[in-house]
Inverse folding.
């Protein structure tokens, strides 16, 4: 599945997530994953949104997101010019014979053990979506009891920041946020 | 200075230049009504909040200034929803203020609590729940800024009752904080130059003009551009009045019930210059078959509209006020340097279509009264100078087709949302915004009955609107579709012509009530109605229930399948379908 990763800086205010999610539902855009978290500036949050490229007109998504008043900036992260990671917690039934094999697999994938009980094991895996998928495929025969994934987050490689991207239009008044983005040019 | 939130709200509205607000009080908004009593604002007490919403829209359409409406929490707020959706679809600048239950009660399912910011999220340009008194002035300032700049739209500010009652320090202007709100980009001069070259070179150009031209106040520039490019102009339902219907380059309205010449010109054009318009399905018909031979220049203030439905060859996002002026200059310069654009053959073809396939109906002197005849007589008697409103349906299409519009902001209707019941309250708002001018609502009997209660408001507020009810006893457009597409099975579309008695209803509301059912009486009745200047007037025009709206492109079909209707012979219909174009 071809996906597009959008990175958006949004105001850290109540209702912002509802505005973004509402836009996707109203316009029949499909979200594959959505991750929200704080940034270095407490007034600003970052949303990383993964959309399915086949069913969703990405240009249109970006332009519509740009129109949301609480969305400060939105860009698409280019595959070859960005680092993208997701984290997965994987709980497996692991009796002693299986455990050794699971630990071996975890080592190959650089996954760490975050919980170990007599009958179970929880792995933490971080990496590209592809890597996490590959690990899950290898672990599947052992029986995955439970799985929690964060959804993708990403940043541009190199010194450039999202705020360096050309956006459409003239930025709005920002008087009460003197320097909202410490890394802005 | 310390003010209550309620005082700050009213003063903020005054500071923003609001003159009229339409509203109806209730528990949660009650604190705001106290300072309203001594404010310079004119508050018009509606009979239903939907009326307040549409009145604010009508005010905005007619004046270009943002309309303001006020309602209480819960059902008061939800009654505004239809008007907000309508304003959102038609990009109408509007501020809706709603009361909310006290903030400690939010989320507890308190009496008259509705999450109105949640409800209106997809139908407002922006909305906000305010729970702090000191936030109120900035929230109002931001609401006006957002509603009126860029692509206009409705903004809802929901204010909790406790924040209206508490006090905070007052200062004006407040600091706006909208880091994510971007004003439109400056139009790219290189693309405007490219568009001008294409337009000057084109042999079969059409200026496809939408409501953005009216909103940006660029009708003069449009005329300059059309004349410099010698390009025919079609004005969409949202743009009626942006270009005079009396101008030789005017093609009339395009789309599902557009004039044949406009529809055919779009289909045969080699270049569309789309200005402040969004390739709506009611204009394009089946999108893949729309304007198949045309290159597209698309200029719009909303970058998200460009490429949404049709990918343009030249995209010019930005303010039309800049684009149109620059484009007209550039085409004029090309004409000065290289001579007039060669569109004579094309104009001959479009003129031929206008003459060959006009809007046609037959009014027998003693036959049933035709709605088109009433519109044409109104147009003649008012010299195209009145402010005309319509609801949604057959009467709306007949009005848009047959009234000869010559000026912007003289046509007000529900375009995108198709809201029945729009006309009477919107006329009230238009009249409040332009007192002393002739405001005429052309309404259907179905539409009229949805919001007729605002006649009481108009009578009491001395807003002498004229309401011409085209009473055919049916939900007419529904009847027409059932006739054409549902085997003439008229399932629940008949309302009956006799109930209510519109003359008595008008009189009960303190209005003048008149009736007319003969073509020969139309002028006299209209003259009588137009002469009333102190109270509203309602005219019950008993019109023919079989009259359809034509031409018609059936929904979802290509525009090439346009049906001229029963007034044309089979031979004429075939000639229209063949559409020989000498310019091609």
């Amino acid at each position: 599945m071809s996906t597009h990763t959008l990175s958006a800086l949004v105001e850290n205010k109540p209702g912002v997530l509802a505005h973004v999610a509402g836009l996707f539902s109203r316009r029949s855009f499909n979200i594959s994953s959505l991750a929200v978290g704080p940034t270095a500036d407490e007034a600003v949050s970052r949303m990383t949104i993964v959309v399915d490229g086949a069913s969703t007109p990405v240009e249109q998504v970006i332009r519509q997101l740009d129109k949301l008043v609480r969305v400060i900036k939105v860009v698409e992260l280019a595959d070859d010019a960005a680092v993208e990671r997701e984290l997965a917690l994987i709980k497996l039934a692991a009796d002693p014979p299986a455990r050794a094999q699971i630990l071996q697999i975890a080592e190959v994938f650089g996954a760490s053990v975050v919980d170990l009980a007599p009958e179970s094991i929880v792995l933490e895996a971080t990496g590209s979506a592809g890597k996490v998928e590959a690990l899950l495929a290898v672990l599947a025969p052992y029986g995955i009891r439970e799985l929690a994934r964060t959804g993708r987050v990403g940043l541009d490689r190199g010194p450039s920041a999202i705020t360096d991207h050309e956006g459409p239009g003239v930025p709005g008044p920002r008087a009460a946020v003197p320097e909202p983005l410490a890394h802005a040019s | 200075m310390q003010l209550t939130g309620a005082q700050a709200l009213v003063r903020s509205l005054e500071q923003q230049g609001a003159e009229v607000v339409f509203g109806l009080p209730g528990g949660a908004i009650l604190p705001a009504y106290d300072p309203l009593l001594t404010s310079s604002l004119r508050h018009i007490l509606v009979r239903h909040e939907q009326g307040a919403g549409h009145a604010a829209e009508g005010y905005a359409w007619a004046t270009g200034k943002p309309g303001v409406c006020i309602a209480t929490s819960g059902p008061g707020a939800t009654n505004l929803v239809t008007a907000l959706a309508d304003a959102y679809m038609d990009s109408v600048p509007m501020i809706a203020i709603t009361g909310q239950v006290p903030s400690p009660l939010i989320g507890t399912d308190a009496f008259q609590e509705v999450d109105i910011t949640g409800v209106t999220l997809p139908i407002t340009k922006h909305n906000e729940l305010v729970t702090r008194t000191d936030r109120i002035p900035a929230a109002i300032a931001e609401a006006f800024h957002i509603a009126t700049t860029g692509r206009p739209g409705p903004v809802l500010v929901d204010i909790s009752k406790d924040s209206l009652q508490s006090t905070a320090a007052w200062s004006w202007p407040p600091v706006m904080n909208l880091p994510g709100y971007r004003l439109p980009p400056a139009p790219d001069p290189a693309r405007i130059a490219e568009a001008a070259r294409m337009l000057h070179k084109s042999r079969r150009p059409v200026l496809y003009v939408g409501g953005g031209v009216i909103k940006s106040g660029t009708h003069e520039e449009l005329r300059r551009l059309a004349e410099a490019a010698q390009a025919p102009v079609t004005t969409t339902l949202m743009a009626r009045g942006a270009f005079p219907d009396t101008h030789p380059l005017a093609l009339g309205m395009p789309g599902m019930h557009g004039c044949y010449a406009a529809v055919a010109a779009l289909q045969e054009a080699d270049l569309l210059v789309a200005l402040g318009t969004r390739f709506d399905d009611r204009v394009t018909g089946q999108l893949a078959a729309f304007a198949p031979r045309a290159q597209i220049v698309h200029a719009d203030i909303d970058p998200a509209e460009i490429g949404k439905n049709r990918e343009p060859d030249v995209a010019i996002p930005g303010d039309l006020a800049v684009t149109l002026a620059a484009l007209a200059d550039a085409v004029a310069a090309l004409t000065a340097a290289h001579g007039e654009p060669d569109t004579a053959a094309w104009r001959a073809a479009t003129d031929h279509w206008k003459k060959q396939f006009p809007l046609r109906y037959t009014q027998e002197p003693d036959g049933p009264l035709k709605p088109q005849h009433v519109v044409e007589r109104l147009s003649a008697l008012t010299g195209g100078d009145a402010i005309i409103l319509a609801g949604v349906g057959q009467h709306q299409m007949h009005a848009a087709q047959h009234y000869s519009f010559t000026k912007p902001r003289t046509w007000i209707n529900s375009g995108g949302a198709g809201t029945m019941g729009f006309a009477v309250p919107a006329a009230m708002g238009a009249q409040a915004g332009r007192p002393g001018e002739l405001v005429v609502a052309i309404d259907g009997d179905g539409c009229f009955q949805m919001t007729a209660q605002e006649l009481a408001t108009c009578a009491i507020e001395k807003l002498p609107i004229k309401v011409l009810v085209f009473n055919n006893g049916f939900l007419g457009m529904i009847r027409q579709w059932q006739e054409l597409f549902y085997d003439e099975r008229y399932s629940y579309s008949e309302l009956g012509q006799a109930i209510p008695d519109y003359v008595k209803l008008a009189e009960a509301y303190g209005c003048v009530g008149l009736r007319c059912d003969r073509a020969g009486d139309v002028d006299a009745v209209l003259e009588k109605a137009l002469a009333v200047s102190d109270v509203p007037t309602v005219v019950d025009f008993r019109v023919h229930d079989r009259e359809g709206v034509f031409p018609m492109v059936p929904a979802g079909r290509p525009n090439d399948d346009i049906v001229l209707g029963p007034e044309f012979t089979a031979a004429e219909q075939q000639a229209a379908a063949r559409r020989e174009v000498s310019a091609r």
User: Anything to note?
Assistant: The domain at 2-169 of chain B is CATH 3.40.50.970 (Rossmann fold). The longest strand of chain B covers residues 94-100.
